[in-house]
Specification:
Number of strands: 20
Radius of gyration: 27 Å
Largest sheet: 6 strands, parallel
Shape: globular
Number of helices: 24
Strand order of the largest sheet: 2-1-3-4-6-5
């Protein structure tokens, strides 16, 4: 019997846990405490829910965030009363901004023990402000059938609100009176004879957001004087921006973007934190070096678009944002959620639909491509299927007209891990300019970085994009790692899965989130700097409850490398002490404290060898010691030069 009738609190808590289990909950993260004992016992006794005890509330909340990122299902998060609940706040903010479903259950004192110095009692009602999708305080537990009906349906609603219409956190504050432990209460035990679980839980089935959350095609795509799609089809200077994204079905997501790109004959500017760069074979018009290209002002002017389709969040690139702000193209934002994705406040129209749905909506209305369309593509007037790209023979390269007159630049073949391409129409000069520039800048980057022998930060992300085992999940920390990934992550066909906390862009909880992503998952990677890792070393306490493997690639430049790229770096003092904040930590000793494997990487061959095969279990740290100032100077000296002479 899943319902515990020993007393009122055990009935209440076990109905809550059983309802969630039947709705589809698989994981609950529980922090220790007395007031939350009824919830802890109920979840621990439910054999169909994995319950994970984690000491530190902030670490626990980010671990829960990571498991929800990976599974695309809500994870339950439970704590006792008092300041324990306050430590969940940063992860709840991130869940809101990144649209990650979380269910937060904070145990609380009953009303008569509040505002009277009863101890461990703070105001927990709406403690998370406006960040939850929905929040409420439950009634005091009662063992009546009517109140159990209320509890069940409130939990159903909480589960739904964590996923619809936009995923995010839901908070329920739950007061408990004594006894908090499962001591028997004869009056409650008698209720068991009246309780029919089959009838009580009848109709409860798993509810998953991914099954029915795609809205219908927006009206702007259907008919009218001149439909949006007709405007797109007429535009020869259009771009598609694939921003930061961690979709559940990455290949389907990337295929949809590719289908739109090929239908419109527009380039796709793909952020390094988008899976699009890791499915390069799907998209012949993939542009990965846009940040570097746009540093060439003459080229940036020539590449001014008339229309931009933005998929989800904007990329990290400040160069891209400034360029869009300056050129002010008509911009369409594609995302089904209710969020505002336009920090530039431009001429934007938000089409609240998924990119997958947009691809199916746009494809049947694409006219047949003839002369002046996409070169090398065969279509007929009677087909509704998307254009088919003729495959390249293995080892072949297809010449594309160069930017500089008289030179010819081949496109690399579609081999595993490489970037493929197709022949473009000479009439589409705008697309051709993007593609040729991409090819030449990519070759310049590859030549420059491949020749570097010393350990330098920018080479890490460039190399990772080529050597990780296929399908590897990688969590990319904020600050410099995300920027180096955007600059240098090379398009590949390895189907690598990027994860990140780019909602609020903080460094807190990074290790714990990465552990949550990799828990019971494929062997995974965390790419992080030293300060970010130090900010969350309590995450190592999860080690004994962690099932899978995480390799932490630690870039140790003894401080905040991102600040070296900002104007404040010129003002020292106080720069070094108050911004760079070097900690002078011996990570070998730190890792030994937690029983975590540690190794210093001295050369690139050693680095490649350590990542060619990932272990199945445990946590290890591969530390690369770098020079913060020298690496910042390398970026400052080179980022603006890669496209300078084109």
């Amino acid at each position: 019997m899943p319902i515990d009738f020993r007393n009122t609190n055990t009935v209440w808590a076990s109905v809550l846990a059983e309802t969630l289990q039947r709705l589809g909950l698989t994981t609950a993260v529980i922090c220790p405490g007395s007031r939350s004992a009824p919830l802890t016992i109920a979840f621990a006794q439910n054999k169909k829910i994995e319950t994970i005890p984690i000491l530190d509330e902030r670490s626990a909340s980010f671990f829960a965030l990571g498991t929800a990122q990976k599974s695309y299902l809500p994870t339950a998060l439970i704590c006792t009363s008092g300041t324990a609940a306050a430590n969940f706040y940063p992860a709840i903010i991130e869940a809101r901004e990144s649209r990650i479903p979380l269910l937060i259950f904070t145990a609380d004192r009953p009303p008569e023990l509040r505002d009277c110095h009863a101890g461990q009692a703070i105001d927990q009602v709406k403690i998370y402000g406006n960040y939850p999708n929905w929040q409420a305080e439950l009634a005091i537990p009662s063992a009546s059938t009517g109140m159990l009906d209320y509890l069940r349906q409130t939990i159903v609603y909480a589960w739904e609100r964590s996923q619809f219409a936009t995923p995010g956190p839901v908070h329920l504050n739950i007061p408990f009176r004594d006894p908090l432990v499962p001591v028997p209460d004869i009056a409650v035990e008698a209720l068991e004879t009246e309780f029919n679980p089959e009838d009580f839980f009848a109709g409860l089935e798993p509810i998953f957001g991914g099954e029915s959350s795609t809205p219908p095609s927006p009206p702007l795509l259907r008919g009218g004087e001149e439909s949006t799609m007709q405007q797109w089809q007429k535009c020869r200077k259009g771009i598609i921006i694939a921003g930061v994204a961690q979709p559940q079905f990455a290949e389907k997501y990337c295929s949809a973007i590719a289908q739109i790109s090929k239908s419109l004959n527009w380039p796709v500017l793909a952020e390094g934190l988008s899976p699009v760069r890791n499915y390069a074979q799907l998209n012949p018009h993939l542009i990965s070096t846009y940040d570097l290209i746009l540093r060439n002002r003459e080229l940036a002017d020539k590449l001014t678009p008339e229309i931009a389709i933005q998929i989800g969040d904007l990329p990290t690139s400040k160069e891209l944002r400034n360029w869009l702000d300056k050129t002010q193209p008509k911009r369409y934002i594609i995302d089904p959620s209710h969020h505002n994705f336009d920090p530039l406040h431009g001429k934007t129209i938000h089409l609240r639909t998924s990119v997958e749905h947009l691809a199916t909506a746009i494809s049947p209305q694409v006219p047949p491509l003839s002369k002046g369309g996409l070169g090398g593509v065969l279509t007929t007037a009677t087909t509704n299927s998307p254009p088919q790209i003729p495959p390249l023979n293995k080892g072949e390269s297809t010449p594309v007209p160069p930017l500089n007159k008289g030179k010819s630049t081949p496109v690399p073949p579609l081999n595993k891990g490489g970037l493929g391409g197709v022949l473009t129409s000479p009439s589409n000069e705008y697309l051709q300019l993007w593609r040729n520039t991409e090819i030449q800048v990519r070759q310049t980057i590859d030549q420059k970085i491949s020749a570097i022998q010393n350990i330098i930060e920018p080479k890490v992300s460039w190399l990772l994009s080529q050597i990780l085992p296929p399908g590897t999940p990688i969590f990319i920390a904020n600050s410099m790692p995300v920027r180096d990934v955007e600059f240098f992550w090379k398009p590949n066909n390895l189907e690598i899965k990027p994860f990140f906390n780019r909602g609020a862009n903080g460094i807190d909880g990074t290790l714990s989130t990465a552990l949550g992503v990799s828990h019971r998952n494929q062997s995974s990677i965390l790419l992080t700097g030293d300060l970010t890792l130090l900010h969350d070393t309590n995450g190592f306490l999860i080690k004994n409850k962690f099932f899978c493997h995480l390799t932490i690639i630690l870039i140790n430049n003894n401080g905040g490398g991102i600040f070296e790229m900002l104007p404040v770096a010129k003002f020292d003092p106080p720069f070094e002490e108050f911004f760079a904040t070097p900690q002078d930590i011996n990570f070998a000793h730190l890792c030994a404290t937690y029983g975590v494997e540690h190794e210093i990487i001295d050369d690139w061959e050693q680095f490649k060898q350590k990542l060619s095969f990932l272990p199945n279990s445990g946590i290890r740290v591969l530390e690369l010691q770098t020079d913060r100032r020298a690496d910042a100077k390398w970026r400052q000296d080179n980022l603006g030069k890669f496209a300078k002479d084109l």
